């Protein structure tokens, strides 16, 4: 049990029933919490940790403000609470005004669960969208790490949770860009079933279960169009292939993936067995990025499309929004003054409406990220990027969005598979003093260093609709979301 001092502090986070449950009797409240929170927990994440965390939060707070996303989708929970808040505000309930102004969200789970919540908040178009703090319960935990919440699974006891709540109370708000993802491919003949398009198993964020409708302005006759969004990264090539192998093995043997360290060890082992450390021997050149896709970038709003020239040796390409990839690495790094001048490159700000495009030759190339100033091959910063896949020697490639991989068939005729990424909007995160992300609008963000860096791995070279969890990110009832990483 919490001591009396903790009990007093916890009043700053608790929300009374009548705010959370519509049609409840209005309560006389004598204390306005400084940091009211709504907590969403994936009870199946982190092995037993998610379930333990759920119990602890409910014991410390009002259990009605703590939700298990396996029991109710967060868009339903948040919609119900916000409709009630608006109703109470309309009746001039001053307490409801203050709750909405101060409300913050905590989400505990892997990057997939966190992305789901970001999508929900983005979709609901709230007048005062609450900022979000993330508790790392996954394998990579790139979102929590980017904003200073760490990447190791947290403690689930009362003291650990109270400490985390204290950090949430002190945390600052930071906007981050969100990115729209559009994929279009030729539809098979209408005779017979084409659901799903075998062997296509898209992640939940890309309308894997609901393609855009025929009335959607993005739809094209004769094509299947999938759309969604992401906050951290899109990657293609060998790194996504290793991730796909990991997720396939976890789906077949979930009982072997209940420990974070074991998961990371399995990931490293698969990197070896898939040939990522000897890509020149085990990965045919026909599957390298330049051989399977033509890449175009639009560097500024309203600019012209330019073809991106990349080396024939690049086997993996990453379009990165946050400075954390593969469990905490920053593939872009910080360009020195000369590169910023000569190539018009900047530090990787998370709110500059630009996405960083980085290439890798193999896992050994990726190990340069362990060096203090190591980085991948910087290819471009872009407001939009387009991949065009034509008939070639490879019949498939691997893709990944925010930790969710899939095996993508490539054209076997003269048609094109097209992927386009474009800036969509922004959402608000909560960041600690250990935040790794930089904001172009926040003067308190750590400045980019002016020091020189090695040149060894640098090569020269219609209106969108909502896309979040309420629709595109909505995870169907029959999907086991414990597999969201």
Properties at a glance:
485 residues; alpha+beta; six-stranded antiparallel β-sheet; 26% helix; elongated; disordered C terminus
Reconstruct the topology from this structure.
Layout: H1 4-10, H2 17-20, E1 37-41, H3 49-60, E2 66-68, H4 74-90, H5 94-102, E3 104-109, H6 111-124, E4 132-136, H7 142-146, H8 158-170, E5 172-186, E6 223-230, E7 233-237, H9 238-252, H10 260-273, H11 279-282, H12 289-292, E8 294-298, E9 306-307, E10 316-320, H13 337-342, E11 355-360, H14 363-366, E12 377-382, E13 384-389, E14 396-401, E15 404-409, E16 417-431
Parallel strand pairs: 1-2, 1-3, 3-4
Antiparallel strand pairs: 5-6, 5-16, 7-10, 7-14, 8-9, 8-13, 10-11, 11-12, 13-16, 14-15
Helix pairs in contact: 4-5, 4-6, 9-10
Largest sheet: spatial strand order: 6-5-16-13-8-9
How would you characterize the largest beta sheet?
Answer: 6 strands, antiparallel
> Structural class per helix/strand content?
alpha+beta
Task: Give the rounded overall mean pLDDT.
Answer: 76
